[in-house]
Amino acid sequence: xxxxAIGLMSxxxxxxxxxxxxxxxxxxxxxxxxxxxxxxxxxPPEWERKLRNATEISSTGLLAxxxxxxxxxxxxxxRFIKKYSVQGLDLIASHxxxxxxxxxxxxxxxxxxxxxxxxxxxxxxxxDFRSQDVLMGGNGAPLVxxxxxxxxxxxxxxxxxxxxxxISFSENNKRRAFDICPVNFVLNKFARQxxxxxxxxxxxxxxxxxxxxxxxxxxxxxYYQLSPPKSLGSEWVEDHMNALLKNETTENIIATFTEHTxxxxxxVIKNHRLKTVLVTGGGAYNKYLIKRIKALSDxxxxxxxxxxxxxxxxxxxxxxxxxxxxxxxxILCSATGSPANHSAGxxx
Length: 348
Prior knowledge:
There is one protein chain. By secondary structure, the protein is α/β, with parallel strands linked by helices. The chain folds into 2 domains: 2-140 and 311-347, ATPase, nucleotide binding domain (Nucleotidyltransferase, domain 5, 2-Layer Sandwich), CATH 3.30.420; 145-307, Nucleotidyltransferase, domain 5, CATH 3.30.420. The chain has helices at residues 45-52, 59-83, 114-121, 131-135, 145-151, 184-193, 203-207, 212-219, 234-240, 250-271, 287-296, 306-325, 333-336, and strands at residues 2-10, 17-27, 30-41, 91-94, 97-102, 107-111, 125-127, 157-161, 164-171, 174-182, 276-280, 300-302, 346-347. The strands form 3 sheets. Strands 3-2-1-4-7-13 form a 6-stranded mixed beta sheet. Helix 11 (287-296) links the parallel strand 11 and strand 12. The longest helix is centred in the N-terminal third of the chain and has 25 residues, at 59-83.
């Protein structure tokens, strides 16, 4: 059976809304996909400000923003549908935008009410993919390993480098997955202090000087000694990292944190003896970071075509929506730490 779905993804790096239209079909017990159209809608300054400051507003303000952002997502999806004259669309699957993620307290919040998307487009919508897993005792992350397992099993591992780096791979016949470390969530913050949206090609890092004291303190953070499954959020960065990223020039902090990222990613690659690693997400464009990962590990680092680099997560959320509509498992407990595989998301 063939499905046509749109995936909507907004990451913690706030570089924009990813929209991906794809078809999915299952032949001989194997799922296949094709990306038909995809684009990133850069957030207008007002929306970037609203989302960046969402953790600071009142509870009533957050409820209003949840609805407002839901209608914004619906408007963007409707514009996309009309732009590409999309026909036969089965569903829209929306990740939403993460504001809070505290699984240890049994909650996670991705704003962007899916009912508003449904009202705006008239298309069945799946949203709120993480809450059920957190309530079950899981981390609610990472979620993309189901797509890695069913759509990208030809690679030894799938590494996404976005606001945070996460990885998934098969080990002992189970899909293992976890967040490795913050990346662009931190790097972009310091790049903005230099008047840039991000460190293009890693040029700032390459020309900076690594502060060995800060690097050592970062690498000794307790999170890196925890066994997976495990996940990270903005609150963790604020509680454990921000105090370390001081008393140094902005350029050198970027250089130091880039090296920290390369060390942590390469440690995971080496510790799990991964041979081929597919790299996607905005960090795949950071040439200096990729160069350092290659230098510190023995794996073959594979950078795919632009479409997959930029839209793999949106593609997989579209796929997760298809699985939800079919009533099939779309969350792997081996990745999130919940007690059982399950089918998550709210369908409206």
